Amino acid sequence: MYPSPFDYYRPKTLAEATELLVQHKDAKVLAGGHSLLPAMKLRVAAPTALVDIGGLRELQGIELSGTSLKIGALTTHAMIASSEIIQKSCPILAEAAGQIGDLQVRNRGTIGGSLAHADPAADFPTVITALGGSMSVSGLKGSRTIAAESFFVDLFTTALGPGELLTSISVPVYGRGSGGAYLKHSHPASSYAVIGIAALAEMKAGKCARVSLAVGGATTKPTRAAAAERALMGTAPDAAAVARAAAKVAEAIHDPISDLYASGEYRRHLATVLARRALTLAIQRGQVP
Ligand code: FAD
């Protein structure tokens, strides 16, 4: 349980951090360390250098500007769960953050680390995918923005290029009449999602004007359940309509993950059950009296 030897750097600026990452081709960014350090101790990862971004205060913080919510990559899960701004403007994010691991994990782990790690069983990738969020990344060649649907490429693989750092995450804020829900079936030991479902519904005059549904934990990356979304669009959804839409979630799950804990078929079934519950809750929360 000892990691391979590595050099340690703690840059004071973003520019210094990106330069270090380019100089040290095998370097890894260290944020909360709650995914990277266990991987290093198991020698699944053996970087020759760590670039600790913990001192870059500019990467931390929560900012609401008009209809856009910006969250710094170094913002911890605990900060997101307890932020009044997030609870009011994007409650599904706070709801998901509060379900991550335990208090220790939530106090150290960061949203940037979770997204950059791209663990299929993580919670934030699913929620950010449902929200249609985007990632701001920075490297020696400058900055760019990557939409969530292009950011998650495969198992533990993102669109981040060599030497690039995730700096912040932006999500649109949906107004009155919008509701959301994040539900998961957690692994009993770690709390990671065996299946996680993020559902959003915008209700107008009793009908679904917008529906977004993402599934995590089922396949190598979070997936939007387009057929289920389409089934509810424009309808005044009763329980039967929600159940019919949720059943279509299975169509979005190709080649599901199968492991000792849950078979692929079980995951598929779980996704439809949780989708029905999450959609019901999102619609209820969106109905303005
Ligand atoms: P680190 O571990 O520091 O880094 C993870 C990876 O991302 C590394 O490859 C690193 O180089 C890279 N990285 C980090 N920040 C950046 C950045 N800004 N730009 C580019 N690359 C970056 N997660 C869940 O979602 N749900 C759970 O229920 C859950 N349960 C957990 C239970 C336990 C016991 C533990 C130990 C972890 C659990 N986690 C869970 C994971 C936890 O949320 C991690 O904190 C998170 O996945 C990684 O965030 P971090 O800040 O710790 O990143």
Short recap of the structure:
Helix content is 34%, strand content 27%.
* Largest sheet report: 5 strands, antiparallel
What is the arithmetic mean of pLDDT? 96
CATH-level-2 architecture of the largest domain? 2-Layer Sandwich
**What would you call the shape?**
globular
**Helical segment count:** 12
N-to-C order of helices and strands: EHEHEEEHHHHHHEEHEEEEEEEHHH
Provide the CATH topology of the largest domain.
Uridine Diphospho-n-acetylenolpyruvylglucosamine Reductase, domain 3
- Overall domain count: 3
Oligomer: single chain
List the ions, cofactors and other small molecules found in this model: flavin-adenine dinucleotide
**Spatial order of the strands in the main sheet?**
4-5-10-6-7
Category by helix and strand content: alpha+beta
Question: How would you describe this protein?
Answer:
The protein is α+β, with helices and mostly antiparallel strands. The protein folds into 3 domains: 7-52, Uridine Diphospho-n-acetylenolpyruvylglucosamine Reductase, domain 2 (2-Layer Sandwich), CATH 3.30.43; 57-172, Uridine Diphospho-n-acetylenolpyruvylglucosamine Reductase, domain 3; 179-287, CO dehydrogenase flavoprotein, C-terminal domain (Enolase-like, domain 1). The protein contains 12 helices and 14 strands. The strands form 4 sheets. A 5-stranded antiparallel β-sheet has the order 4-5-10-6-7. The protein has a 4-stranded antiparallel β-sheet with strand order 11-12-13-14, with helices on both faces. It is globular, with a radius of gyration of 19 Å. The mean pLDDT is 96.
